[in-house]
Amino acid sequence: MTAFTGTRHLVRLILRRDRVVLPIWVLLLAVLPASYAGTYAELYPTEAERAAYLASTASNPSIVALLGPVFGDSVGALTVQRAGLLVLFAALASLLTVVRHTRTEEEAGRRELLGATVLGRYAGLTAALLVAYAANVLLGLLIAGGLVAAGLPGAGSLLFGAGLALTGVAFATVGGLAAQLTESAGGARGIGLGVLGLAYVLRLAGDAGGTGGKAEWLSWVSPLGWAPRARPFAGERWWVLLLPVLFAAVVALVAYPVSVRRDLGAGVLPPRLGPATAGPRLAGPFGLAWRLHRGQLLGWTVGFGLLGLVLGGAADAAGDAVQGNQQVAEILARLGGSSALAEAYLGSSLSLTALAAAGYGIQAALRARAEETAGRAEPLLATAVSRSRWLAAHLLFALLGPVVVLAVAGFATGLSYGLSVGDVGREVPRLLGAGLAQVPAAWVLAGLAALLVGWLPRFSVAAWAVLAGCLLLGQIGAVLKLSQWALDVSPFTHTPQVLGDNWTVTPLAALTVITAALLALALRTFQTRDIPTQ
Hints:
There is one protein chain. The protein is an all-alpha fold. Helix 3 (47-58) runs antiparallel to helix 16 (315-321) and helix 22 runs antiparallel to helix 23 (462-477). Helix content is 73%, strand content 0%. It has helices at 7-17, 21-43, 47-58, 61-67, 75-82, 84-100, 103-107, 110-115, 123-149, 154-181, 185-208, 216-221, 226-229, 242-261, 285-313, 315-321, 326-336, 341-373, 377-381, 387-421, 424-436, 439-455, 462-477, 484-487, 506-528. The protein has 25 helices and no strands.
């Protein structure tokens, strides 16, 4: 028996459990770069048009900070910048995957049961890392193949795919180390997300000053800044790929010794002890739900506020970027704006933030399922707490969360854009209303997640697949000129564009009624099924 005995079996187990989630995020991230390349090739076919687009966007620090730098005016270089946020998403998915199959398994007690079998001391961490690494390699190959199929050069395509994949590998390893530092899965996710957030802030600050600026060294410090600085399609720098490889190696060299020197179920960092007795706010299910959800709600709120400030500051440059290109203006208007190009940009940006807010709603609804599978729901429901009250406490945050984060995003966007155009008093209420108009669509997905928890709990993770489908329809549906019935599948298609002149409240009311029906069915089905259901 070696330290890695049983790794192969654990890999098979992880693949079996992630047979839905893993393909979703890999395929979703893989298809987007090729769609961006096709769009740029169609909208900016000449070098002069691409140069004009580049000049107008690169001059705005907000756009460069949000998406990253652009090196060159080729279709490939523009595609790399447009896909800059995909590097962040790949890192996030990789990190959470590793935490889920290490610390979450340990916290639930399943790691101890497996450890009683013939299982090496490094097997658990190695299996989780191997699955995450393999997913990123597959993602990189799919991205490279898609870009080549879109007509881009093979060398740049392969370099971009490799850079994104290795960034995911680096943060998967960060997740492995974070899982060793704390005894709770929530704490491990918090540490990992903190590192990811710091990396993003460093990249944002370094890129905001432009290439060659005094602060560019901050982007070189950030693991999220390495992939674009490999310069795919702009004089490839293959040596930059060594940076995420070395980073992952160093982090792994710390994670592996720590994983065997700590006690099973414990972390390196001592837990913070709470009071000896619970306060009155924990006397009911709603107080407990607030305690469980407040940290995530605060983090999402802060993130949406910062995102709103960046999006609002970039609105003017977005309008300048498409001046004189009627085809781009039509596509932006179809994606979610009015006839004004700046408003089209703001409308489409708020639509994307609404998709992210729906992600929070799904996450909050699925927290009830997580409490159930962890064995914490059954003891509570054995008391005087009714099933409906317990589930409603979690669903309250699934509804309240999107309202809060979209209100903050709308307010921050309006404030930033209002300052740039010199009319804060007009833009803040307009964009606050535009943000809140996105709430009912986000509610529908939260309601669907709640229904799956109550009716088909084993398939509740499918709510993320629905969100991925809505994201795909919103990103490439209009560009590919899909039929209207296909676009109408997404609830976000029915959100009125309140920044325009003509809109009605009817779609919002209809989406709210659908949400109410989904929640009612969720509560009813939850009352009649077994608990827990594995």
